[in-house]
Specification:
The complex is a heterodimer of chains A (about 290) and B (about 450). Chain A has about 290 residues and is mainly alpha-helical. Chain A has 13 helices and 2 strands, in the order ααββααααααααααα. Chain B contains 17 helices and 13 strands. Chain B is globular, with a radius of gyration of 26 Å. Classes of the chains: A mainly alpha (about 290), B alpha/beta (about 450).
């Protein structure tokens, strides 16, 4: 084994397939997008080089409304981190402790992640339907007619109506990550704490959560970058509407590129999404590291 | 050793299976060829020539109203031209828009492809990847398909495609519900408003529409604009031909939309409903009116429980000084073009006209579309609503293509976005008209 590791040719040989895949699928397209983002290009005819004009337009054009989409994505990131992850953590700790039917619950919570997002979108479209949807029907049944809304069709409610299924869908995903983390903590620690008279809350607070920190860090990174990239459910439910109320960067990008033939401008949005994802991934790592030093 | 033997056995068995399967396949194709050859020998002299394969892309998927017409037209064509085979590949409408654009960019166009005339295909033609068809548009075809219908497939004076249907916007209404309140199809804006008010007074929402699928609302707005500003002015403003959109006639139609919104004339939740959901409310008799394209005539037959309840009328006139009741929004946008990269330009150039002619006939007989080609066959079986729209179309004094087809993709996207904001109330009619003028200026 040692010999193989020292053999440079072997290293290159074994690395080669992975490097080729990584380069052709990730690195090269990123560089191509960066180049496209400097063009005024309809995707078909020859593009015109315009420098940073697309990026300037991103932040100045009122009709495109890019800053607002960033705001929406940030809001989703905050909600994911502070609402979705605590719920996931709660379930993970409860289930990790060993509950009757543990495997069953893990499977149930994970089901939304497995179902196709389009299917989930259709389900929620029915739930939100102003006419026969369960939300409005329930409100009417309770006599709260004045609280009924066209949930996906009103500017004030559309954004949150779209966020709720997104948050709900990925609770199971983060729960599974954390559950695996909880399971990998040695039971001796728990038992020792119990003998010393620690409460369940105390065990969670001072043993489980601190030991879960690396996993939580990963979850936060996934949640934040996932929010910045969020696309599928929003596309199915509102397609960014009404009047950009639930627009996020990726839906704006798709409508610019494929709806309006603006490949250059769309590529600029793509570059911004990539940049923000990297930025936050690094930032979150830093934050967790400084905490560890403390 | 034993393991190895087993492996060898498995490999041997699977190879034999694969080989025998492929042998079966060969036999079958041989047989098919024989049959084809026989038929060809009977039909034409040039049967010995190798078979010509053309590929046609369209959006006539199996659930599409035009699917039957395409299938029959292709069968007719293949029967008339032995030795030519057309492979028909279909795609879903929205994804096709992406597919066709990327195919143009990647030089992967099939011989014949469906596309939309006007602004949508402009860049395709400019890229030089579409075959000009002037030499194939013979006098025989000219007699049956007017040059006016091909207006949207003509770029820079050259013809690049052929069409089979001239859809128009119309006001579809539920006659049974109208009769109940002794109402008549409106011909002027005032009558239209009275109709709306009468339904509202009786607790019925009068108009079905979808703002989520903004093109449906655009159908209403386009038609009202045409009936306010008239065909020439509208077309000139939208195509940036020296007329500013910031004009009282255009303001009038935006104000009418606002009026209808304010009086609650549009179905509740239109901002969140798709076209399918909204039109379902029309078919089942919840709302009495729906402004959309003539294709609804065919859908009423299949989707409404009581198709006899429904009728159709032209869009009411807002300003009779500019527009007539016989001015129509619509025209031939459905186009089939030929790729410049085709191996058989002469065959494909002729096929595009023969195919569109047959599709025109079968689609009309199915009630799927209004025939663009001359009707020289018995059409008594066509459903009454489609027939009525066809009559309107044949007596039309003008056709103006829908805004979002007339404009290029970016302007169309902006138009639909602005229209949505107008509906929701983020923009006043004045601001809407100004924003439209501004986006059409540069």
């Amino acid at each position: 084994m040692e010999k193989v590791r020292r053999n440079k040719i072997a290293i290159c040989l074994f690395m080669f397939p992975a490097v080729v895949l990584f380069a052709t699928i990730i690195i090269i397209p990123i560089f191509m997008s960066s180049y496209y983002s400097l063009l005024d290009w309809d995707g078909i005819t020859k593009g015109i080089f315009v420098g940073l004009d697309n990026f300037k337009e991103l932040f100045t054009s009122k009709s495109a409304g890019f800053p607002k989409t960033i705001g929406n994505a940030m809001l989703l990131a905050v909600l994911s981190t502070f609402i979705q992850l605590p719920i996931s953590l709660f379930f993970a700790i409860i289930l990790g402790k060993g509950v009757k039917g543990e495997k069953f619950y893990v499977a149930v919570f994970f089901i939304p992640v497995l179902i196709s997002t389009t299917v989930i979108g259709q389900l929620w479209l029915k739930i939100y339907n102003p006419d026969y949807g369960i939300v409005n029907a329930g409100l009417r049944f309770l006599g709260l007619d004045n609280l009924t809304h066209v949930w996906l069709g009103e500017q004030d409610t559309a954004l949150f109506a779209v966020f709720i299924p997104i948050l709900w869908q990925y609770v199971g995903y983060h729960m599974l990550l954390m559950y695996a983390g909880v399971k990998s903590i040695s039971p001796d620690l728990r038992e020792a704490a119990k003998i010393d008279g620690a409460t369940e809350w105390g065990i969670a607070r001072f043993i489980t959560i601190p030991l879960l920190k690396p996993i939580i860090r990963i979850c936060v990174i996934f949640a934040v970058t996932g929010s910045l990239k969020a696309f599928d459910l929003i596309y199915v439910l509102t397609n960014g509407g009404p009047a950009h109320a639930s627009e996020v960067p990726s839906t704006l990008m798709v409508s610019m590129i494929f709806g309006r033939n603006r490949y250059g401008f769309g590529s600029a949005i793509a570059i911004m999404i990539i940049f923000l994802c990297f930025f936050f991934a690094v930032l979150i790592r830093k934050l967790f590291r400084t905490e560890e030093v403390d | 050793m034993k393991k190895n033997l087993k492996k060898l056995l498995v490999i041997l068995i699977s190879t034999t299976m694969v080989l025998s399967f492929s042998a079966c396949g060969n036999k079958k194709t041989d047989k098919a060829k024989d049959v084809g050859n026989n038929a060809a020998a009977e039909g034409a002299a040039d049967a010995k020539k190798e078979e010509i394969q053309l590929t046609l892309w369209s959006i006539a998927t199996e659930s599409d109203a035009f699917n039957n017409a395409y299938t029959k037209a292709i069968a007719d064509y293949e029967a008339a031209h032995p030795g030519i085979k057309i492979t028909h590949e279909t795609f879903e409408n929205e994804s096709y828009k992406t597919k066709i654009k990327s195919s143009v960019a990647a030089n992967e166009l099939p011989d014949l492809f469906y596309t939309w005339g006007g602004g949508f295909s402009k860049s395709f033609v400019e890229s030089g990847k579409v075959l000009p068809l002037d030499q194939y548009y013979t006098d025989e075809f000219k007699a049956q398909l007017s040059t006016a219908a091909l207006n949207n497939a003509t770029y820079d004076g050259k013809l690049y495609g052929s069409t089979y249907t001239t859809p128009v916007s119309a006001l579809f209404y539920n006659k049974a519900m109208f009769d109940k309140y002794s109402l008549k199809a409106p011909t002027t804006w005032d009558e239209f408003k009275t109709v709306c008010q009468t339904f509202l007074d009786n607790g019925i929402t009068p108009i079905g529409s979808s703002v989520k699928d903004t093109w449906v609302l655009a159908m209403t707005h386009d038609a009202l604009t045409l009936k306010s500003a008239g065909p020439e002015k509208t077309a000139n403003a939208v195509t940036k031909n020296g007329v500013s959109y910031n004009d009282l006639d255009f303001l009038a139609s935006a104000e009418k939309i606002k009026e209808l919104v304010d009086m609650g004339a549009f179905i509740e939740g239109a901002t969140g409903l798709s076209n399918d959901e909204a039109s379902a409310n029309f078919y089942n008799g919840t709302v009495p009116m729906y402004i959309t394209g003539s294709w609804m005539g065919g859908s009423i037959l299949t989707d409404a429980p009581n198709p006899d309840d429904f009728d159709v009328a032209p869009i009411p006139v807002i300003n009779s000084a500019n527009a007539k009741i016989t001015d129509f929004m619509g025209g031939a946008a459905d186009t089939i073009m030929v790729s410049n990269g085709t191996k058989y330009p002469d065959v494909a150039g002729n096929a595009v006209f023969e195919l569109t002619k047959s599709i025109s006939k079968y689609a009309y007989l199915d009630g799927a579309g209004i025939a663009a080609w001359q009707v020289d066959y018995d059409d008594s079986a066509v459903n009454p609503i489609t027939k009525k729209v066809a009559e309107y179309a044949s007596n039309a004094t003008s056709f103006t293509l829908w805004f979002d087809t007339l404009m290029d993709a970016n302007e169309a996207g902006e138009y639909l976005a602005l229209l949505q904001e107008l509906y929701i109330g983020n923009l006043t009619p004045e601001e809407f008209v100004e924003a439209m003028a501004a986006q059409l200026e540069d």
